[in-house]
UniProtKB/TrEMBL annotation:
Positions that bind substrate: 93, 99, 132, 163
Protein name listed in UniProt: Malate dehydrogenase
Domain Lactate/malate dehydrogenase N-terminal: 7-147
Swiss-Prot/TrEMBL catalytic activity: (S)-malate + NAD(+) = oxaloacetate + NADH + H(+)
SUPFAM superfamilies assigned: LDH C-terminal domain-like, NAD(P)-binding Rossmann-fold domains
Designated gene of the protein: mdh
Any coiled-coil regions, as ranges: none
Similarity remark: Belongs to the LDH/MDH superfamily. MDH type 2 family.
């Protein structure tokens, strides 16, 4: 072991994503196999007992990298000294419910968590918001953490990125590993735009390799954008193991870097790049290195992509307006 233990706080630890996530963190897949972790689990009081049960199982996993598990029902304590915060706890969308309906219910959760991060997290804190509506929840948390650099608050579109990789690989009969430079733009919602115009498949342009605008517009984009709803319809519950896996990928790449010649998708505070209003937490193509990320610059955006990006960004602006009206940002 080459590092001191890293404190990782997971909210909603007793939920279905938490159950899939914690064991992978404990095994070293979040930060790397030479980094011990101390888990700090936050739950609501009614779910603390279930979180304690998961902690017993974590102990039974005999993970060499797991340096401790503490359970809290108080946000201030849970974020004390934390280096990585995975904000998962929220109310999942159920059948027939639109994500917009969740804004108010979840706003109340992310404000106090932002305040707690501001008050007690470590200086190098990195935050990933998974709980929906993830982009706007991240905005709320960030608004209440004025002493933390804004860019440390991110939201998850890596699941969408991974879904798009899998769909494109299926269409072209290649492995996901053959695909590079795919991008999810905008919101983690049905308006998101999975962009293959800059993607490469074994070095060839992906849009040219597909050469099927009908598939792109009427199958690929809606399939990826509505995959969350498809999973809910099939499982009767929202995606869990795939969401946990994407959270691992997001933080792993943020901390350890993206591979050379590739990029990934992260929802991050906009600096105005690609015409996305500054401050909105929107998904962009990013590269990571040395523990920080950068937006990939200089991509040519065609008219088709422009309209799709604008529509998703408009939804994010509307969500920001809605939470402004609720006094949450
Ligand atoms: P779940 O209902 O199984 O678990 C949520 C847990 O959060 C529960 O145990 C609950 O007690 C806890 N919780 C609620 N309020 C809390 C608070 N204030 N502090 C701490 N814990 C709290 O839900 P899940 O399936 O694990 O999903 C969690 C969230 O992730 C949902 O909002 C879901 O929509 C979202 N999600 C996001 C993505 C993405 O790609 N961004 C993908 C899948 C799911
Ligand atoms: C998902 O993408 O699977 C989740 O965000 C669930 C949802 O509410 O769509």
């Amino acid at each position: 072991m080459t590092h001191a233990p890293v404190n990782v706080t997971v909210t909603g630890a007793a939920g279905q994503i938490g159950y899939a996530l914690l064991f992978r963190i404990a095994s070293g897949q979040l930060l790397g196999t030479d980094t011990p972790v101390k888990l700090r689990l936050l739950e609501i009081p009614q779910a603390v007992k279930a979180a304690e049960g998961t902690a017993l199982e974590l102990q039974d996993g005999a993970f060499p990298l797991l340096a401790g598990v503490d359970i809290f029902d108080d946000a201030k304590q849970a974020f004390e000294g934390t280096n990585v915060a995975l904000l998962v706890g929220a109310r999942p969308r159920t059948k027939g419910m639109e994500r917009g309906d969740l804004l108010e219910a979840n706003g109340g959760i992310f404000k106090p968590q932002g305040e707690a991060i501001n008050a007690g997290a470590a200086d190098d804190i990195k935050v990933l918001v998974v709980g929906n509506p993830a982009n706007t929840n991240a905005l709320i948390a960030q608004a209440h953490a004025p002493d933390v650099p804004a860019e440390r608050f991110t939201a998850m579109t890596r699941l969408d990125h991974n879904r798009a990789l899998a769909q494109l690989a299926g269409k072209l009969g290649v492995s996901v590993a053959d695909i590079k430079k795919l991008t999810i733009w905008g919101n983690h919602s049905a308006t998101q735009y999975p962009d293959i115009f800059h993607a490469e498949v074994n070095g060839k342009n992906a849009a040219e390799a597909v050469n099927d605008q009908n598939w792109l517009e009427n199958e690929f984009i809606p399939r990826v954008a509505k995959r969350g709803a498809e999973i809910i319809e099939a499982r009767g519950a929202s995606s869990a193991a795939s969401a946990a896996s994407a959270a691992i990928d997001h933080v792993h790449d943020w901390v350890n870097g993206t591979p050379a010649g590739d990029w990934t998708s992260m929802a991050i505070p906009s600096d105005g790049s690609y015409g996305v209003p500054e401050g909105l937490i929107a998904s962009f193509p990013v590269t990571c290195s040395g523990g920080s990320y950068e937006i990939v610059q200089g991509l040519e955006i065609n008219d088709f992509s422009r309209a799709k990006i604008d529509a998703s960004v408009q939804e994010l602006s509307d969500e920001r307006e809605a939470v402004r009206k609720l006094g949450l940002v």
